[in-house]
Design goal:
single chain; 3-stranded parallel β-sheet; LRR_FXL15/At3g58940/PEG3-like; about 500 residues; F-box_AtFBL13-like; about 20% helix; alpha/beta; F-box_dom; 16-stranded mixed β-sheet; 12 helices
Length: about 500
C-alpha cells in the first residue's frame, strides 16, 4: 500500500513518550500497517488514537477511508457534514479511497451534498456511500422520507475516478454522463421514475453491476436497462416488510448476463419483458419462510402465495447455464413434486443448491436433477433449511407408479458438497469420514447414492469444509443407505407418484 511519509513531528518510534513502550508492539509496526488498522475503525475512534502518544498523534490524518454517521454525532455533539469538510482539510491533502456518510434527513443539506460529490470527483475518491435518512439516528423517530437530489454535471470532473457508488433514501432522476469509471451502483430505498434506470445505465458506460434494494417500495418498479449499456449483473433485493404487496416489478434488460433475486418476492407480480439472454440466475429467497402466506401445508391441502412469482421467474430463466437456488426455493419445488408437476427442461450446466438436505428438500433437489439434462457440475452448499412447517405432509404415505424420464445426469462429471457449519471440519490425511461429514443432514448419503447410481459419467466427488478438502474418484464406499428402509421411494425417478397419490393416503 502506497502511503505518504508522515510528518517529522510524528516520529516512527516514541520510546521516551510512553512508560509502557516495551509492551506497545502495535506502535512499532510500519506506518502502512498502522494506517490499514485505522482504516478499519470508525472515524471518531481513529481520531481518538491521536491521544495515545506522539507516535500516534498524526497517523489518523493519513486514513484512506472516511466514515461518519450518528455515532460521530453521539461522541462529539457535532454535525456530520461540517465535521466531514474539516476532516478533509486535516487529511494532508492526499487522495482518499472511500467516503461513507450517514445523514439525518434535512432539506438544507443539498448544497453540501453537491459539494461533497464534487470533492469526491476532484480528489480521486474511488468509493462513495451516502445515506440521506439514517435509520440509526435516534434523535427523532425514523420514518420513510426521500430527499430529491440533483447531481449537477457542471461541478463534476470530466474524468471521475469513482468506481463504486451507494445511495440510500432519496429520490433520483438520473446520474449525469460524467461517471465514466463507475462500475458498481447500489441503490437502497430510492424512488425512481419510469425511465431513471434507463438514463442512468446509458450515462454510465462502464457500469457492470446494478443492485436495487427496496426501491419504489410503495409503487411499481420498472427496471429498464439502456440498449447500449454494458451492464452485466442485476441484483433485486426486496423485503416482505418493506415493499407493498399490491405493487409490480417489470424488467427489460436485454444485455444483462447475470440476474439475482434476493431476500423475498413480496410484490403482486414480476414480469420480464423481451428476450433476456441471461447465462446466470440466482434465487436466494431466505426471507420468504417468515411469511405465513408464502406457503402453507394443512389438512385441506397446499396453499401458496408468492410461490407463483418464483416458479414463473424460474421458468422464464430456464435457459441460464448457471443456476443458484436457496432452501426455500427447493422446498417450493418439493411441493411441485407433490402436485405431480414435472420440471421444465433446463439448460443448466452448473447447478448450485443451498440446502439443509432434509426430507422435504430431497424432492425439490430431485425436481432440478431430473430437469437439468445438460448438467455437468453440481455444488451442494449445506446449511440450515428454511423454517417451513410440513407436519401434516410428513405423515403422508405414497402409492402409485413412477413417471417416465429420459436420460438422467448423463453429462454430470463433478459433484461437490460444502459443509462450513458442521462439527466435522478436519481429518487426518485421506482418512475422510462421510458419516461424520453428513451428521445432521439426514439425506446427504442418499443423495450421494443417487448421484453415483445415475450419473454414469461421474468423475469426481469433492467434500469441502472450512478447513479441509477431500477429493475422490473412487465411489464404492460412499452413499451408505443402511438407514433407508424404503429405497424404492428414494430413487430420483421415483419421487413422482400417480394421481392416486393426490388423495393424501396415510
Amino acid at each position: 500500500m502506497d502511503c505518504p511519509q508522515l510528518s517529522s513531528k510524528c516520529p516512527r518510534h516514541s520510546a521516551t513518550s510512553d512508560d509502557n513502550c516495551d509492551l506497545d508492539y502495535i506502535s512499532n509496526l510500519h506506518d502502512d500497517i498502522l494506517i490499514q488498522i485505522l482504516d478499519k475503525l470508525p472515524m471518531e475512534e481513529a481520531v481518538d488514537t491521536s491521544l495515545l502518544s506522539k507516535r500516534w498523534k498524526d497517523i489518523w490524518r493519513y486514513k484512506k477511508k472516511v466514515e461518519l454517521g450518528y455515532q460521530w454525532v453521539q461522541r462529539t455533539g457535532k454535525k456530520v457534514l461540517p465535521s466531514l469538510f474539516k476532516i478533509f482539510r486535516a487529511l494532508r491533502e492526499q487522495n482518499i479511497h472511500s467516503i461513507s456518510v450517514s445523514l439525518r434527513y434535512d432539506l438544507s443539506m443539498l448544497t453540501e451534498i453537491q459539494s461533497l460529490i464534487a470533492y469526491a470527483s476532484v480528489k480521486n475518491v474511488e468509493e462513495l456511500y451516502i445515506d440521506f435518512n439514517d435509520r440509526n439516528d435516534r434523535r427523532s423517530r425514523w420514518r420513510r422520507r426521500y430527499i430529491s437530489v440533483l447531481i449537477p454535471e457542471c461541478e463534476l470532473s470530466q474524468c471521475s475516478s469513482l468506481v463504486k457508488l451507494s445511495l440510500k433514501s432519496l429520490q433520483l432522476e438520473t446520474l449525469p454522463p460524467r461517471f465514466e469509471a463507475l462500475r458498481e451502483l447500489f441503490l437502497e430505498r430510492v424512488k425512481l421514475a419510469e425511465d431513471s434506470l434507463e438514463n442512468i445505465t446509458n450515462n454510465c458506460p462502464s457500469l457492470a453491476l446494478l443492485s436495487l434494494t427496496n426501491c419504489n417500495p410503495n409503487a411499481d418498479l420498472k427496471v429498464i436497462i439502456g440498449a447500449n449499456s454494458n451492464l452485466r449483473c442485476l441484483v433485486i433485493r426486496e423485503e416482505l416488510s418493506e415493499v407493498q404487496k399490491m405493487t409490480e416489478l417489470c424488467i427489460r434488460a436485454t444485455n444483462v448476463k447475470a440476474i439475482e433475486f434476493a431476500l423475498a418476492l413480496p410484490r403482486k407480480a414480476y414480469q420480464i419483458e423481451g428476450t433476456l439472454v441471461c447465462s446466470e440466475a440466482t434465487f436466494r429467497l431466505n426471507q420468504m419462510h417468515r411469511s405465513r402466506q408464502a406457503m402453507r401445508v394443512t389438512s385441506l391441502g397446499i396453499n401458496g402465495k408468492f410461490t407463483k412469482n418464483f416458479l414463473g421467474l424460474l421458468r422464464t430463466l430456464r435457459a441460464a447455464e448457471v443456476l443458484t437456488l436457496s432452501s426455500w426455493c427447493i422446498q417450493v419445488l418439493s411441493i411441485e413434486v407433490v402436485k405431480l408437476q414435472q420440471p421444465p427442461i433446463f439448460e443448466v450446466r452448473h447447478l448450485i443448491l443451498e440446502t439443509g438436505l432434509i426430507r422435504w428438500e430431497f424432492r425439490g433437489i430431485a425436481y432440478m436433477l431430473l430437469g437439468c439434462y445438460k448438467l455437468e457440475n453440481l455444488l451442494i452448499v449445506m446449511g440450515a433449511p428454511a423454517e417451513l412447517k410440513f407436519e401434516y405432509m410428513e405423515n403422508v404415505k405414497y402409492y402409485g407408479i413412477t413417471m417416465s424420464f429420459g436420460k438422467i445426469l448423463q453429462d454430470l462429471t463433478i459433484v461437490e458438497f460444502r459443509n462450513y457449519s458442521g462439527n466435522y471440519q478436519t481429518w487426518d490425511g485421506d482418512d475422510f469420514n462421510e458419516i461424520q461429514f453428513f451428521a445432521g443432514f439426514e439425506f446427504g448419503s442418499l443423495l450421494v447414492w443417487n448421484l453415483k447410481t445415475y450419473a454414469t459419467g461421474l468423475k469426481k466427488l469433492v467434500f469441502t469444509t472450512g478447513k479441509k478438502r477431500f477429493e475422490t474418484s473412487q465411489f464404492e464406499g460412499f452413499g451408505d443407505l443402511f438407514s433407508f428402509t424404503h429405497l424404492d421411494y428414494c430413487q430420483l425417478p421415483c419421487v413422482y407418484r400417480s394421481a392416486e397419490y393426490r388423495g393424501y393416503h396415510r
